[in-house]
Amino acid sequence: MATWLAEFSDNFGAWFNQAWASLEPIMPNVAKIPKDFLEATQQTLYMTFWTALWSGIFGILLGVILVVTHDGGILENRWFYRILDQLVNIFRSIPFIILVALLATTTRFLAGTTIGSKAALVPLIAGVIPFFARQVENALLEVNPGVVEAVQAMGTSPWGIIFRVYLKEGLPGIVRASALTLISVIGLTAMAGAVGGGGLGNLAISRGYNRFQTDVTLMSTILILILVFITQFIARRIEKRVTH
């Protein structure tokens, strides 16, 4: 097995280098820096994965809390809902570039620096959580209230209603919200790159725009679009599977 993997890796590496070198006639600057593009793509995937993971966990948690505490919710608490709702609105409205500046001190404290992919995670997660939480809330509010009332009348606990009704019935909507959020995250990682976060966005600006290497900017854009299309494709397949 190990021998097969090593052979596959060598063959794939040789094919990749040959294919990348073939770009030289149309994208000469791109053909010279395959390692830079590989590293930038890895950084983009790194930022996307960890942002999606933590934003997904806390976004779903906040979304559920918003649904169960709003007027008529199974754990109705108007004051708590209004405070949390306003906090979500405030953080969701702050432009990402400004959020990066506002959280610079926090980023330095948590990551030890304000530059690089690891540092970019702090503003990325802080900016995406409220956005995803609102999307989850909207998805769960689409669940038939009659089903919630029927299960509640049977004496089911709030936790049971959350897991057996809201999250189960609202799963297709959550999948759609997750896809939309993930696409937004990919776009934000490109923006993070423009302020020193690394990734394809940083490569497009520092190498493509600043050095007038248009082909580098174009290839960075193409790779970002490929990530978006892959995300959309996977999300649609998952949505079809979970839709009743």
TrEMBL record:
Subcellular location: Cell membrane
Domain named ABC transmembrane type-1: residues: 41-235
Membrane topology value: Multi-pass membrane protein
Listed CDD domains: TM_PBP2 (cd06261)
Entry-linked PROSITE patterns: ABC_TM1 (PS50928)
Keywords, sorted A to Z: Cell membrane, Membrane, Transmembrane, Transmembrane helix, Transport
Transmembrane segments: 47-69, 90-109, 115-133, 174-196, 216-235
Keyword check for Membrane: yes
GO cellular component assignments: plasma membrane
A Pfam family assignment: BPD_transp_1
Main location as per UniProt: membrane
Cleavable signal peptide: none
Any one Gene Ontology BP term: D-methionine transmembrane transport
Family: Belongs to the binding-protein-dependent transport system permease family. CysTW subfamily.
Name used for this protein in its record: D-methionine transport system permease protein MetI
